[in-house]
Specification:
2 domains; 355 residues; 8-stranded parallel barrel; TIM Barrel; globular; binds flavin mononucleotide; 3-stranded antiparallel sheet
């Protein structure tokens, strides 16, 4: 018999389980995945970027008339909340690096989302943009970043984050580390979590959510033992029936071996962990197809200097095309089957079945 896991309180909402499904863009965590995770008692996170081009709820937006996909975001949040049926927490992940960050935040709040999670930069003025009791959750990769944002919010706005996600170097997607840091002991989750928890303790009772490489119940126990109050998973939620990505992505995860997982520098300028595909190999050999920027979706992206559109390749992955950029965590090779979210969450609580 395992010890019961604690619940996760975040502002006005409480999730029965301290299990967070991390935001996965473009189009990997949409309303179905996020709503189901919330319904099963966790926190489900929609990824806001590029929703206008992947949603199945409203006509796909024309990059010229609705470049930000605001209608799609509104519809996706509504659908996720309906599916959650009052259970758990429905959050939206909006990357700081996105050029239309402000209207996305405004739309998410207006659509009644419970929490806004922000990575790819520190959201210094986020409290200024959000009315009401929406929980604000920055993602950090160091104790220093946790201190910078929390101290600034406390000084400027007299408030602190409702929780902080600490993402370590084993995560899928973009990483907040240099190549040297990926294996440095002080950057691993077991060192980062207590360091961030110690910083946050100065500012009150702020839960730390540990992310990156969490695979099973034992990892949850280990994260809680070093000071986390919840965990965030990405890759295992890709391999669920309710994940909004195409079957092809799920099959690639299930079929992957440790040797298929690699870390590359993407056109955003950050390292990212991906499945090694033919496309990745061509890119590593500097073979690029050429492209035309349709969205100017990232503030820092200088379209004529980068060699490919990451947003397009992420959408290709969500839709299961060979030219997809398939983000995965370093545990992807351990995933052996696609499960219903309910069964995955049961295993995360009760343990994996014997092999
Ligand atoms: C396919 C994929 C897409 C992701 N996209 C985003 C994203 O858009 N924004 C973000 O903050 N994190 C993103 N992440 C990171 C996840 O939210 C999560 O923190 C991470 O996957 C945790 O590590 P794990 O995969 O080892 O569980 C992504 C991860 C994956 C696997």
């Amino acid at each position: 018999m395992r010890t019961p896991l604690p619940s996760l309180k975040l502002g006005r909402r409480t999730a029965r389980l301290p299990i967070v499904q991390g935001g996965m863009g473009v189009g990997i965590s949409r309303w179905r995945l996020a709503g189901t995770v919330a319904r099963e008692g966790g926190m489900g996170t929609l990824a806001a970027q590029g929703l206008g081009q992947v949603t199945d709820l409203v006509p796909r937006s024309d990059p010229r008339s609705d470049p930000h996909g605001l209608e799609a975001l509104r519809a996706e949040i509504k659908a996720a909340r309906e599916l959650a049926a009052g259970q758990g927490i429905v959050a939206v992940n909006i990357m700081m690096a996105i050029s239309h960050y402000d209207p996305l935040v405004e739309t998410a709040v207006d659509a009644g989302v419970d929490a806004i999670v922000t990575g790819a930069g520190l959201p210094m003025d986020l409290p200024d943009k959000v009315r009401g009791d929406v929980a604000l959750v920055p993602i950090v990769s160091s104790a220093r970043a946790a201190r910078t944002i929390t101290r600034y919010w406390a000084d400027q706005y007299g408030r602190v984050p409702e929780a902080v996600v600490v993402e370590g170097p084993r995560a899928g997607g973009h990483l907040g580390f240099t190549r040297e840091q990926l294996t440095a002991p002080e950057c691993q989750l077991e060192a980062l979590v207590p360091a961030v928890a110690e910083v946050l303790r100065e500012y009150g009772d702020i839960p730390v959510i540990a992310a990156g490489g969490i695979y099973q119940r034992e990892d949850i126990d280990a994260a809680l033992a070093v000071g986390a109050r919840a965990v965030q998973l990405g890759t295992r939620f890709v391999a669920t029936e309710e994940c909004d990505a195409a079957e092809h992505f799920k099959r690639l995860v299930v079929a992957s071996t440790a040797g298929d997982i690699t870390v590359v520098r993407t056109s955003v300028g950050l390292l990212g962990r991906v499945l090694r595909t033919e496309l990745i190999e061509r890119f590593e050999q500097q073979q690029f197809p050429g492209f035309k920027c349709q969205y100017q979706c990232l503030k820092s992206c200088v379209a004529h200097q980068v060699h490919y559109c990451l947003a397009d390749h992420l959408r290709d992955a969500a839709e299961g095309r060979p030219e997809g950029f398939y983000f995965v965590g370093d545990n992807a090779w351990r995933v052996r089957e696609v499960l219903p979210v309910r069964e995955l969450m049961r295993r995360l609580v009760e343990g994996e079945p014997p092999a």
